Structures
1.
Amino acid sequence: MSNGTAITADDAKVVEQPAVKKPRRVPLSMIIGGTIVSFFVVLAIIGPYVTPYPFDQFHFKHRMVPPSAEFWLGTDRYGRDIFSRVVSGASLTVFMAGTGTFIGVTIGVLIGMFSGYTGGWVDEILMRLTDIAMSFPGLLLAMLVVAALGANEVNAVISIGVVFVPKVARVVRSATLGLRHIQFVEAAQVRGESRAYIIFREILPNIWPPIIVETCIRLSYAVLLVVSLSYLGLGAQPPAPDWGLMIAKERAFMVTAPWVVFAPASAIVLLIVSFNLLGDGLREWLAARKTSDE
Amino acid sequence: MSDGGGGGRDVLTIRDLDVTYFVRGQEVKAVRGVNLTVRAGETLAVVGESGSGKSTIAFTTMRGLDAAGRVMNGSIHFHDTDMLALRPRELRAIQGSRMAMVYQDPQTALNPAFRVGDQIGEVVREHTEMRGEQADNRVLELLGGVNLPDPAGVAQRYPHELSGGQQQRVLIAMSFACNPELLIMDEPTTGLDVTTEAHILDLVANLKEQHGSAILYITHNLGVVARFCHRVAVMYAGEIVEEGPVSRVFSKPAHPYTRSLLTCIPKLDLSKHDRPLSAIEGQLPSLSDLPTGCIFAARCDFAEDACRATPPPREQIGDDAEDTVSCHRHRELPPFEFERHIRDVDQARADATSDGALQVERLKCFYPVRRRIIEYVSGKQQKFVHAVDDIDLELGRGRTLAVVGESGCGKTTLGRTLVGLQMATDGTLTFEGNELAGLARDRGPDLRRRVQIIFQNPDATLNPQRSVGDAIARPLELFNLVPESGRAARVTDLLRSVNLPDNFADRFPHELSGGQKQRVAIARAFAAEPDLIVCDEPLSALDVSVQAAILNLLVDLQKRSNTAYLFISHDLSVVRYLSDLVAVMYMGKLAEVGTPEEVFVPPYHPYTEALLSAISIPDPMIEQENIRLEGPVPSPVNPAPGCRFASRCPRKMTVCETQEPPLHEFSPSHRLYCHIPREELDKMRPVIRYAGEETAVV
């Protein structure tokens, strides 16, 4: 009797007065995810200033030493302090992932809203184009873009944007479609509002929740893409302390000196998991807000 | 109106029931101290507005209360079984076989992934010994029993292939699968057309006769109660305020709330020229913070200090122990009487002149039917849904033209074309010499300003992210009506004109009730200082007491601003009250146009006649002709020539199927499209009459 319960819940809602607003319960996943993500963001900003050694300083007497009081996470084959490298690398990874996501989400939101609101042939063509773009695996598409433009950080960021645009556009388009024929949008059409006004002032404020959640999930994929591209030599170039690059360069010593790979790999996993947690928590939190407000 | 049917043994007994919802730290006492008894062969109606707790009673009885709701006190017995103590397995044995429920929304109650025949078959197999062919035959028998044409064909279909009325019939067939002793119906006809509603009610009454089931009927529609039920319990804010036989409650309502409910619905004999409607002022009390005295005292015209101090006891009226009222002052109230407005129809006819500010000429709106690619390539001809097909209408400044008809008749398309949400396929729309062509954004700003719209669903009409003040100020800004410095003051004026307090400008839509949102929508429409407003069913989502207040507001604003309304509605009583002209539409065509005094009295179009006979009127002193439309609704895709109504018309002749009906002009304002010769139309009997008289109620 799922139908029945839905209606009774409604019944209770009608009689409820919009009295004192109780603060909503914030999901635990959002707190944990948010905390770790903010930690990494702080690290990205202040990282280079707090490391015990410069990330590219060689200590020839201490090559491949295991974690110790002197070198907290050990050193690599050139005797560079891994802790300093991982901390310094946070800024590169977070910044590249963030910029790439920002580009992808911004363009994706614009295309998605335009396509969803306009409809008809325009929508059909744009969505078939996104289908084509999405039929390539994300990493492959990113590699193609970098291969065409040249391997460096800027092009890696652009490639992330290119990969994300169709995915974000899809999500935003479907959210927009749901509002296209809603009455307040039609009321704006009757008033003769411009297309831009309707898209940015009437529709956009109402689709923030899916956009925010999508952005969080995209960020975690972006981290993965950044390190993958670097690992393949298509992103940051040596001697940059990029996590993916570190794994790629040191992986030959993984068996004898596991710490050389362990530290950057854990940082990647932790950042991705926390972005996912944050996205999940946000989704739950925003959904709860929606049901209690409307 | 049928009396005395009851008298069987008690099937459902509810005693002292209290149900509370625990919602975010608040206790919402949704149902308090409810006593009800439903007997075999009897229909008990529970009426009330939203928030009265009527659905909660139904779901508690079916043990379908959601996790937030809890029964705090009281008992529910089905025969001698304590429903609240049953374990899930015992409950399953009773539900669906000995008691069944019909929900409000048939679309969500049927599983879209299964054929309807299989869904009914599942109930049959679960609760009876029937298997295989025997069960299949039983399904067909049930579908035949609810008057579905071609039961075998319907059984093979999926829910989405059936109309709303057909879906509801399938649900009723399912609920009767095991001849239940108790049937609970929660607003079973609310989303349906009046003609379909009349059919469904006849059907349920018939099945009840056959099986002697007890029915608990939950509704907000007093008209349906009067026509269909034996006894009625009126609920307000979680309590039963009055209970008794329908004949007594509707002729001598004892509780002030019942009286208000009966008087706030517009009657067929009441027009806006007679008097404003009596709305119930104020709001439902908060169910988490209840008043100490009578629950209705704050909104009651007769309340005195004693009412606010102590809750009224339940008192018996007359001899029947179940004829009760909870009111301190019920003996002192003045006698209740329905008003009578007997008017001179010929006089009204002479008043109906029009200066024709809005002219609709030969308007056609077709939607192309989507073709498959293969059909497109093979050059199959494009088909069209004829939503509006060749319509002529006229509407003068400051007047109201109501467009009525069943869902799918094209009335909404007409309104949307007027405001420029859709393109007309052919024909012209002119407003005071300016052509209303194309979409809104292609029209000039002045023309756009002069034509506004008010929508049906108050929850979707305002952008949830913008404050009320912003929403109302936007037309002022867009059309340069008021300089920026004066806008706040103008917003306040507009809020006052729709009877909302000034501080509402800072509120957001989710803080408002449905009626308040609709008032804001009206204020927003009037902010543009329009000359014509299309009202697309603005009342259908509101409770009757709120509906009356909004109707009064619309009438009042029209008088002050001389704005014309195109009022789209399916509710004939509301249309009668508000309109100066009525247009009856069927399948995109006009059936009849005229003043209410012309359309609501003979000669009728046969479709108007059927519509009038299908509406439910909560007045025991009114008689109604019983006309039911049989026959299939034709497809609106490239309709066949001839009268569109022919397939369902009870007065059909052979010529109707082949030729377009001719126009009869009874007066300059009264036009009627029908093949029936004029002499015969003139001989029609009024469908709605005062008991024992031959004059039409109008």
Note: The first helix of chain B runs from residue 54 to 61.
2.
Amino acid sequence: MPENTAYMVTAYIVTAAILVGYAVLLYRRTLKP
Amino acid sequence: MKLLKTGRWITFVGLALLAAVYVRAIAFTPVERMQGVAQKIFYLHVPAAIWTETGMILVGVASIFYLFLKDPRLDRFAEATAEVGMMFGTIVLTTGPIWGKPIWGTWWTWDARLTLTLLLFLMYVGYLLLRGAVTEPGLRARYAAVLGISGMCLVPFVHLSVYMFRTLHPQPIVLKPSAPSLPGAMLATLAFSFLVFTVLYVGFVTQRYALSLLREQAEPHA
Amino acid sequence: MRDVWRHAWLLVRKDLLVEFRSRTAILSAVVFTILVLLVFNFGRDPTAVAAVDLAPSILWVTFTFAAMLALNRAFQLELENQALDGLLLAPVSRSSIYLGKLIANLVFVATVEAVGLPLFALFFNVSVVPVLGPLLVVIALATIGFVAVGTLFSAMTGRTRFAELLLPVLLLPFMLPPLIWAVLATAALLAGRPLSETAGWLRLLAAFDLVFVTLAFFLFPATVNE
């Protein structure tokens, strides 16, 4: 089996970053009146 | 504002469930023999891709109804879905190459999903840019609707031409990231992930919709 | 329905009259086309790359630029002096305005292409004549596709800031599929492949044109109605 765990980890981190990042972005945009 | 709070809660639940998806995908789903651990990117990539495309169709449908009914709620929904769709598109366009590199040996390939997603992403960008460039709300909604409907109509053509391209140039690949028949455990993980992405879609769109509403209420216009 | 065509034709004549009296736009488009072809010609190492490999892409980049030039000025005439309001007050249906604009733009782009194609064949030493019929069909269908969508969108971008920047951005995802099909069809034709291979791309182009001209025809009023 090929050794490519690093790619999987990167993709999972990037996805989480985008989703959480967008959630935070929305939260902060709605805080300002 | 109630809608906003609801949206935030749904998103929070979605993100918590996402953590569960991660655990299940990484620790409790079997590793695919030919591709190895990298195949697990599939569980995030595919649901994101489904929502990127579904988002475009929803923008189109909402736009059609808007042109007939002129209901601003439809326009707000279209705007929200477009932004969220673009965000999901970003996930597909980043996880795609990261997955492609170890499996296909190349960062980019004109495979069906990536090509379609790239075009969808460009459509979303154009849609949001157009909205940004028009200040008068009624005009903005109408223009956006025209663009949204056009975008939705383009999608079948992209599918068709990718299919045709494939039949003319058969791909000499052994490893196909989207396996047609998944064993039970993998299918379950995919289904769970898709469910969570759906929850996230609903949460994000609700919040974004509420944001539009708040902005309209904050600045009374003639 | 006959009124729609009659009014559209009147608008086409108006646009073409204005255009060919001043002649600046068509001249700059032609000069630009020649420039692009020359640059591509000198940028290529003839010993390393055969002309016929690059030819389809070069042809279509040139034609795409020409189409963009036409579309950028599509509604410019009307925006100066608020002539668009005058048009809208006239007893012509909105859709005839679209048809008229579409045909006028097509004539403009076709003129540039009519100059560009022979020059292309000349500079790149590509034998176009044996496949001229099918090639003209490909060019016609792809051009109709770009210009149909472009005319609709230019009605919206005209009044926005950064109009010249916004139009290509909006148009990009809509131009890519017909452009790719056209390049593939052109490549097949110029390489002397049997016509059956081109048929699929031609069908897609024709379907695209049918769908988008119809769609634009019905959506255009939404871009100009108050």
Note: The two ends of chain A are 54 Å apart (CA to CA).
